[in-house]
Design goal:
This protein is mainly β and 132 residues long. Helix content is 8%, strand content 59%. The chain is built from 1 helix and 8 strands; from the N terminus they run ββββββββα. An 8-stranded antiparallel beta barrel has the order 1-2-3-4-5-6-7-8. The termini are far apart.
């Protein structure tokens, strides 16, 4: 298993009444502590903002991953969401369940590590340019 979950992750979760919601997460892991951010579309009908931003704080112990996502600002039906999941042996996927404390709202989520960093794409493009 890789030593860190630090990186860019493409994710999705199933929200009752809204279906599948996609998001982009940036994770930073230091000594088992997780931090980071999430950007996702607002799925609430008549939402006055199109994109939500949230922070992540949690931890990883072996393959177990747990974090709380806090929407900034809270509101529009969004506040804090608790995530518990497991990372696969290659540290390329995290899947599990999310829950909003004090409610019956819960569902599944999946995060997949982005495989093409921007630097690699730039280098590949330079290689393809014709020599003058």
């Amino acid at each position: 298993m890789t030593d860190t979950l630090t990186g860019i992750w493409d994710g999705s979760y199933v929200q009752p009444g809204a279906g599948v919601v996609t998001f982009l997460a940036t994770l930073i892991e230091t000594g088992g502590a997780l931090g980071g951010s999430v950007t996702e579309p607002c799925m609430t009908p008549a939402c006055p903002i199109s994109t939500h931003n949230a922070s992540i704080a949690g931890h990883r112990s072996g393959s177990a991953v747990s974090f709380v996502k806090r929407y900034e600002p809270s509101g529009y039906g969004y506040d804090t969401v608790h995530y518990d999941g497991a990372v696969n042996a290659e540290a390329t996927e995290i899947d599990g369940r999310w829950k909003i404390a004090g409610t019956s709202f819960s569902g599944t989520f999946l995060m997949v590590r982005a495989t093409r960093p921007a630097e690699s794409v730039t280098s590949d493009e330079r290689i393809k340019e014709p020599a003058l």
